[in-house]
C-alpha cells in the first residue's frame, strides 16, 4: 500500500528525518519496503497519528515476517501508546487525538488477539478486574487502561460502568483476579472507591488483592487516603504499576 | 477598585454580572475578573491559573472570592485557596450550583445518563463541546463519548427561547432527548451576596 508521507509529529519519523516537515507531501512510504526496525518506528508514528489502517497493515507485515504477536504488541503498539500517554500528560495531545491513537492500536490488536489467545502467551500475568464506580457512566479512561493492561499481558475483565460494590465482589469471587481496578471521572463519584475498599477490607480481601484506582480528578493523596494499593496516573503508568504488583519488572 | 475581587470561570461571567445587578452591587463593591472557560477541558490547569492571579493581585482587595466549583481539580483548587485565604463556590460544579444540590442529585438519580447544559454551554456548545471533544474532526467518536448518555438536561438561567432552541439542537446532534428546566441562578446569588458581605442587598 502506498500512502503520503505526512509528518505531523514533532519527533523524528522513521524514514522521515528531522526537517522532513518541509518536504512536499507527495512522497510515499511503502511499509513493505521498510526494514523491521524502521517499520516498527513507522508504526509507532502511525499509531501516534491515529492511522488505524496503516497500523493494522504494519502489524500484518510483521506477522508475515515471522514476528511473534507478543513482540509486535510490546514493541510497536504498547510502546506507541506509551508515547501517546506521555504527550497527553504533557498537554501536547488531547482526548480526541488519544482516542484516535487508541483506535489505531485497537486495529492492530484485532489481528494479534486471536494469535495471542492461541499461543497462550496472553494473560500470563493473570486477570485484572476493572470497572467504573457506582454513579459514574464515564469509561473512556477505563477503556484506555484496559487496552494497555491487555497489552501488558493481563486478561482484562471489564465490568463496565456504574458498578455498586456487589459487582466488584461478585467479579472477585468469580474470576479470582490478580488486581482490581476502579475508575471515576467525577469528584462526586470518586469517594465510592473508598466504600468498595472498606468493604474489601472488612471481608479480609484487601490483604490478598491489590487495588488500583484512577481517573481524572484523583491524585496520590486521595488514593492514599482511601487505602488504595496504587494510584494509576495514566493508562501507561497503570499498566506498568499493575505489572509490578504481580511481580513483573516493566 | 472594588472591595471584593470575584475571580470567576469565564463560563460564569454573564451570570456573575447578572447577579451583581440583582444584588445592587456597584463596581466599588465588586470587581470581576475571569479566566477562560475552556480551562475546563484541561482541569489540571485551573488551580495554577487561579493561583497566578491570586498571587499577582494580593493586597489589592479586602476579599477575594473564587467563582469556581471544584471543577474536576481533585482538591488542587482548594489547596490554592487555602494558601491565599480565599473561598470558592460551595459546589463541585456549576450544575449543582444552579440546580441546587438536592435537585441535581434527583436529576442524576432519575437518569444517570444526564448530560447537563447551562446558558453558557447552550450558547457555546459548538465550540466547547462539539469542537472541544473533536467531534467536528472525528464524528465517529460520538458514541465513545456519549454512548452511555440518555438525555440532555438544559438548566436554564434565563428565559431565553433562542438558548432553549440551541439546547434542543445540541441534544439533536448528540442523538439525545432534551429536558429544559428553568432553575435561574440558584445558589450563585446567595454565594456572591455572602462573599461581598454587607454590601449585598438581597
Structure, described:
- The complex is a heterodimer of chains A (250) and B (202).
- With 250 residues, chain A is an alpha/beta fold.
- Chain A has helices spanning 36-48, 52-64, 69-89, 95-119, 140-152, 165-175, 191-202, 220-226, 235-245; strands spanning 2-4, 28-30, 127-132, 155-158, 179-183, 211-214, 230-231.
- In chain A, helix 7 links the parallel strand 5 and strand 6.
- In chain A, helix 2 (52-64) packs antiparallel against helix 3, helix 3 runs antiparallel to helix 4 and helix 4 (95-119) runs parallel beside helix 5.
- The longest helix of chain A is centred in the middle third of the chain and has 25 residues, at 95-119.
- In chain A, 50% of the residues are buried.
- Mean pLDDT of chain A is 87; it is low at 1-24.
- By secondary structure, chain B is of the alpha/beta class.
- In chain B, strand 1, helix 1 (13-22) and strand 2 (30-35) form a beta-alpha-beta unit.
- Chain B has helices at residues 13-22, 46-56, 76-83, 94-99, 101-110, 119-123, 125-131, 142-146, 161-174, 188-196; strands spanning 4-9, 30-35, 63-67, 87-88, 114-117, 151-156, 177-182.
- Chain B starts with a strand and ends in a 6-residue tail after the last helix.
- Chain B is globular, with a radius of gyration of 17 Å.
- In chain B, strands 2-1-3-4 form a 4-stranded parallel β-sheet, with helices on both faces. Chain B has a 3-stranded parallel β-sheet with strand order 5-6-7.
- The longest helix of chain B has 14 residues, at 161-174.
- The chains are: A alpha/beta (250), B alpha/beta (202).
- The interface between A and B is medium-sized, with 24 and 24 residues.
Amino acid at each position: 500500500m502506498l500512502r503520503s508521507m505526512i509528518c505531523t509529529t514533532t519527533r523524528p519519523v522513521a524514514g522521515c528525518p528531522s526537517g522532513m516537515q518541509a518536504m512536499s507531501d507527495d512522497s510515499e512510504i511503502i511499509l513493505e519496503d521498510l526494514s523491521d526496525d524502521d517499520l516498527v518506528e513507522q508504526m509507532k508514528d502511525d499509531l501516534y497519528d491515529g492511522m488505524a489502517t496503516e497500523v493494522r497493515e504494519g502489524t500484518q507485515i510483521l506477522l508475515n515476517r515471522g514476528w511473534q504477536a507478543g513482540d509486535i504488541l510490546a514493541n510497536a503498539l504498547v510502546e506507541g501508546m506509551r508515547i501517546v500517554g506521555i504527550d497527553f500528560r504533557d498537554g501536547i495531545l488531547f482526548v480526541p487525538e488519544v482516542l484516535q491513537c487508541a483506535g489505531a492500536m485497537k486495529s492492530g490488536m484485532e489481528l494479534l488477539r486471536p494469535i495471542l489467545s492461541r499461543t497462550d502467551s496472553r494473560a500470563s500475568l493473570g486477570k485484572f478486574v476493572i470497572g467504573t464506580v457506582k454513579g459514574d457512566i464515564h469509561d473512556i479512561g477505563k477503556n484506555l487502561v484496559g487496552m494497555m493492561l491487555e497489552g501488558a499481558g493481563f486478561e482484562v475483565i471489564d465490568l463496565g460502568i456504574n458498578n455498586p460494590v456487589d459487582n466488584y465482589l461478585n467479579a472477585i469471587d468469580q474470576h479470582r483476579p490478580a488486581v482490581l481496578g476502579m475508575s471515576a471521572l467525577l469528584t462526586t463519584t470518586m469517594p465510592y472507591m473508598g466504600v468498595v475498599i472498606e468493604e474489601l477490607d472488612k471481608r479480609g480481601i484487601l490483604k490478598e488483592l491489590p487495588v488500583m484506582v484512577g481517573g481524572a480528578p484523583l491524585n496520590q493523596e486521595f488514593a492514599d487516603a482511601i487505602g488504595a494499593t496504587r494510584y494509576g496516573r495514566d493508562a501507561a503508568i497503570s499498566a506498568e504499576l499493575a505489572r509490578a504488583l504481580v511481580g513483573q519488572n516493566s | 477598585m472594588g472591595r471584593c475581587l470575584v475571580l470567576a470561570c469565564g463560563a460564569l461571567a454573564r451570570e456573575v454580572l447578572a447577579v451583581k445587578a440583582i444584588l445592587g452591587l456597584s463596581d466599588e463593591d465588586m470587581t470581576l475578573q475571569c479566566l477562560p472557560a475552556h480551562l475546563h477541558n484541561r482541569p489540571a490547569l485551573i488551580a495554577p491559573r487561579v493561583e497566578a492571579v491570586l498571587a499577582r493581585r494580593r493586597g489589592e482587595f479586602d476579599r477575594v472570592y473564587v467563582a469556581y466549583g471544584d471543577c474536576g481539580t481533585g482538591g488542587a483548587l482548594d489547596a490554592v485557596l487555602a494558601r491565599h485565604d480565599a473561598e470558592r463556590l460551595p459546589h463541585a460544579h456549576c450544575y449543582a450550583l444552579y440546580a441546587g444540590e438536592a435537585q441535581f442529585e434527583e436529576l442524576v438519580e432519575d437518569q444517570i445518563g444526564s448530560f447537563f447544559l447551562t446558558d453558557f454551554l447552550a450558547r457555546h456548545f459548538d465550540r466547547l463541546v462539539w469542537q472541544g471533544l473533536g467531534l467536528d474532526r472525528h464524528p465517529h467518536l460520538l458514541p465513545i463519548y456519549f454512548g452511555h448518555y440518555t438525555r440532555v438536561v438544559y438548566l436554564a438561567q434565563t428565559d431565553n427561547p433562542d438558548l432553549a432552541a440551541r439546547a434542543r439542537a445540541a441534544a439533536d446532534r448528540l442523538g439525545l432527548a432534551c429536558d429544559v428546566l428553568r432553575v435561574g441562578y440558584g445558589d450563585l446569588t446567595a454565594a456572591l451576596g455572602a462573599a461581598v458581605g454587607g454590601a449585598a442587598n438581597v
